[in-house]
């Protein structure tokens, strides 16, 4: 029994030692340049597709929650269906409000806009996480619109699978 346990311990330690050779970073020799691999930056076209956006905060209607769905094209534009509820206005459903990615930097930071009717809308600061284009965060911190403080998340909708 002790022999088997000892053999197992030696095998586990050997496997750990062998795998560590792959995990140790390569040490450069004098004058040798190391190449650093960076993930490619995110682009607006990477965000094309169907999205579900959940928002909450304070708007001109008081405390509000909003749920929007939008299909973004490769230029970051789409028409959102916005459903909302608030403490100061009746529940609403806006079937077609413009949503647009206004800017997107390679590091995933940027801005987006969502309309909510005539003379109504929000400008969001957005962030797409590194290495993922299936979600981004939104927050309205525009100083020109101080009483609108919304925060939320946009998640890519899963494709519909049709069963025959």
Folded structure, characterized:
- This protein has 164 residues and is mainly β.
- The chain contains one helix and eight strands.
- An eight-stranded antiparallel barrel has the order 1-2-3-4-5-6-7-8.
- A hairpin with a 5-residue loop joins strand 5 and strand 6.
- The radius of gyration is 25 Å and the shape is globular.
How does the SSE layout of this entry go?
Elements: H1 2-23, E1 49-59, E2 62-72, E3 77-86, E4 92-104, E5 109-115, E6 121-127, E7 135-139, E8 149-156
Antiparallel strand pairs: 1-2, 1-8, 2-3, 3-4, 4-5, 5-6, 6-7, 7-8
Q: Care to count the β-strands?
A: 8
CATH topology type of the domain at 44-156? Lipocalin
State the fourth-level CATH superfamily of the domain at 44-156.
Answer: Quinohemoprotein amine dehydrogenase alpha subunit, domain 2
CATH A-level architecture of the domain at 44-156: Beta Barrel
Strand order of the largest sheet: 1-2-3-4-5-6-7-8
Structural category: mainly beta
How much is the radius of gyration in Å? 25 Å
Strand content bin? 35-45%
Overall 3D shape? globular
The CATH class name of the domain at 44-156 reads: Mainly Beta
Tell me about the biggest sheet?
Answer: 8 strands, antiparallel, barrel
Helix content, binned percent: 10-25%
Q: Could you spell the SSE succession in H and E letters?
A: HEEEEEEEE
Mean pLDDT, to the nearest integer, reads: 82
The count of helical stretches stands at 1
Q: What separation lies between the terminal Cα atoms?
A: 57 Å
Which runs of at least 5 residues are low in confidence (pLDDT < 50)? Answer: 10-28
